[in-house]
Amino acid sequence: MRLLALALPILLFCSCISERPDENTPNTSLSLGYLVAPAGFKVEVYADNVPNARQMTAGANGIIYVGSRREGKVHAVVDSDNNFKADTVFTIATGLQLPSGVAYKDGSLYVAAVNKIWRYDDIDNQLENPPEPVLVTDEYPEESHHGWKYIAFGPDEKLYVPVGAPCNICNRAEPIFATITRINADGSGREIIAEGIRNTIGFDWHPQTGNLWFTDNNRDMMGDDIPPCELNELTEEGQHFGFPYVHGDDVWDPEFGDAGKETNIEFKKPAQELDAHVAPLGILFYTGKMFPDEYQNHALIAEHGSWNRSEKIGYRITKVTFDEGGNALAYEPFIFGWLQGEEDVRGRPVALLQLKDGSVLISDDSSGKIYRVKYSG
User: Fold this and answer.
1) DSSP of 70-99, one letter per residue?
2) Is residue 372 a contact partner of residue 44, using CB atoms and an 8 Å limit?
3) Which residue in 208, 268, 336, 357 has the most C-beta neighbors within 10 A?
4) Strand 328-336 vs strand 316-322: parallel, antiparallel, or unpaired?
5) How far from the centroid of its chain's Cα atoms is residue 283's Cα?
6) In angstroms, how far is CA 22 from the centroid of its own chain?
């Protein structure tokens, strides 16, 4: 079903797509027997043996580094003959605590493991015998609830590190929780740049405005359809995005909402409300030359999928379209089919990575696959 959003002139596609798509559906294409994309797009398996694949980052020579969560490992995925099929998967780190986030800079791989960030120097040349890691910082909170992290270097060459709320809903006194921080590459100079963010596992910078955009997973246990998940834009450092007081545009929390109404905090509303409980993770602004023009500078979001909704939702890639001023206009499915039914889940998308040729990789922590999306028209 389609729900007309009242706050923005957009269409929200809010159905749990569970029927197996017809291969002959007009204007769509079917890949791998179950994944549906717009006509002209094809989804292939880039690698199928990357257990619990989470965030991805690319090295200087095209090696794809992949974090995990439950596995406690970091992998290097190598396509040595450049045919867009992985030939070798190296394990370059083990025994880490929830090492979901990875980032690459100047030949070094940075790995986020809850309260610690490690650096593996000259990693591209030492895949078979990885170097001893260098501790960048160990000054992040030790709480593991929402303690896994997505990390990335920004245009300012600083490392951006979110800190999730250590709960479903709470108001911890320590200011570090429910924030996005940034640090220098050596771990120094930590500062909080955004507050009131329950749990972001994906962000990217708009290619035209340069503003930071991030997804946010809102609280559970308020029912199937509220509160919405969020796509947010940071337009000024220090903005507060509502947690734990208000969720989405105007869903006041039953426990903390009254306190929020009495504060003098100016809460920043989401740029785009997403469907409730879809668990949005990675976001990518597409800037490649392979996809059609209508994808240029628009956002793709990996929706990991609900875990406690009475009917599952998410398990797909969605697209958010923007106007020339960088404002969100529309939110709609792009690739779906990982959810075939309540008991038939083929995968759970996590993160997105654009390759140099303009194709896009999607990690899947449920099946251990990495997919490649290409367009041939």
Assistant:
1) TT--EEEEE-TTSSSS--EEEEEE-S-SS-
2) yes
3) 336
4) antiparallel
5) 5
6) 29
- Edge to edge, the sheet with strand 116-120 lists 101-105, 108-113, 116-120, 134-137
Q: Which residues contact 236 (CB under 8 A, 6 or more apart)?
A: none
Q: 321 exposed, middle or buried (CB, 10 Å; 0-12, 13-18, 19+)?
A: middle
The Cα-based distances of 283 to 37, 173, 230 in angstroms read 18, 30, 12
The one-letter code for the residue type at 236 is: E
Both tokens assigned to 259 = 């306190």
Q: What is the pLDDT along the chain (377 residues), one digit of tens a residue?
A: 333 333 333 333 343 433 344 444 569 999 999 999 999 999 999 999 999 999 999 998 999 999 999 999 999 999 999 999 999 999 999 999 999 999 999 999 999 999 999 999 999 999 999 999 999 999 999 999 999 999 999 999 999 999 999 999 999 999 999 999 999 999 999 999 999 999 999 999 999 999 999 999 999 999 999 999 999 999 999 999 999 999 999 999 999 999 999 999 999 999 999 999 999 999 999 999 999 999 999 999 999 999 999 999 999 999 999 988 778 899 999 999 999 999 999 999 999 999 999 999 999 999 999 999 999 98
DSSP helix/strand/coil, 164? coil
State if pTM tops 0.70. yes
Q: Specify whether the CB–CB gap between 102 and 66 falls below 8 A.
A: yes
Q: What DSSP letter does each residue of 96-158 carry, written as one string?
A: -SS--EEEEETTEEEEEETTEEEEETTGGG-SSSPPPPEEEE--S----TTT----EE-TTSP
Per DSSP, the residues of 229-246 read EEEEEE-STTEE--TTTE
How crowded is the C-beta side of 168, counted as CA atoms within 13 Å? 10
Residues in CB range of 16: below 8 A, 6 or more apart = 311, 312, 313, 339
- Alpha-carbon distance of 139 to 183, in angstroms, equals 11
Tell me which H or E stretch contains 301: strand 299-303
